[in-house]
Fold this protein.
Amino acid sequence: MKYHKLLQRQIKKSIGTLDTASDKLKQLLKWVSQAYNDFEEDRSLLERSLELTSSELVERNNSLQAENAKLIEVQEKLIQKEKKLKASVDEKEILLQEIHHRVKNNLAVISGLLYLQAETEAEGKAKSKLQETQSRIHSMSMIHEMLYENKSFSSINMEKYLYDLVQTILNNFRPEDLDIDFQMEAEALIVDMERAIPIALLTNEVTINSLKYAYPVAKKGIIKIKFFRLNKSMIQLVISDNGIGLPDSVDLENPTSLGYMLIKAFVDQLRGTLDMDTSSGTEFKVTFPMSLATQRKNKHLVKKIAG
């Protein structure tokens, strides 16, 4: 019987020879030797497994490092693209700002020329028409001026704009002997340019009409403007005065004067509806839809309406 080499050394050191050993001792030594051999095999398998595992880990680590290097490269490219996009956006914002500035200046020049022309005319229809045209142009110029100053290139806060616009109209068209109490109730709604301009021109026409025709005798009057969100998708503009009302001959569905033609055109441009009440003065009530962009910008008001 050949025993495990470690066991052989132990037998030689402790017993010397097995010639006189009993069968039971020999059987025990056989089992011990087998246990040594099993241990050697297990250790060999474990070492081999560890070698394979270590190799796999090294390979996996190298693979992860390569993937990480690729991700870093992609990230750097994305950062460079983001910088280019930001530079492009900044450039476009500067260009838009410059466009609004130039449009404002050009409209201001036209408005100024009309004002000078009106000043050379004697009192009468020609002068009145020039002044009204100048006011229309000025109302558009104010929009571009606000967009330029606020660096908001596609939408405008109508609460501030309408207040400033009507104050300008009152300063330019209110008769010296007429005292007007201007009252305004408006939500700070953000409106896109597509709707801001017809709203402005509509307000301009109705307000000037009130100043020109609503108070032929009275020395005091009230002009009210309400601008608010009617529901989640609709806006309402109400312009009213407490003057003498409109003549029965006025038909807004088939207008004959330029002012009323423009009012109808601006309502149509807003894709809105116009209701008029002359039971106590004159009230123009215009209801029109918001654009989807306007709805998103004013979504903070939805909770207020729902409450």
User: Anything to note?
Assistant: The beta strands are 155-157, 179-186, 190-192, 220-229, 234-241, 273-277, 282-289. The radius of gyration is 45 Å. The chain has eight helices and seven strands. Residues 86 and 185 are 39 Å apart (CA to CA).
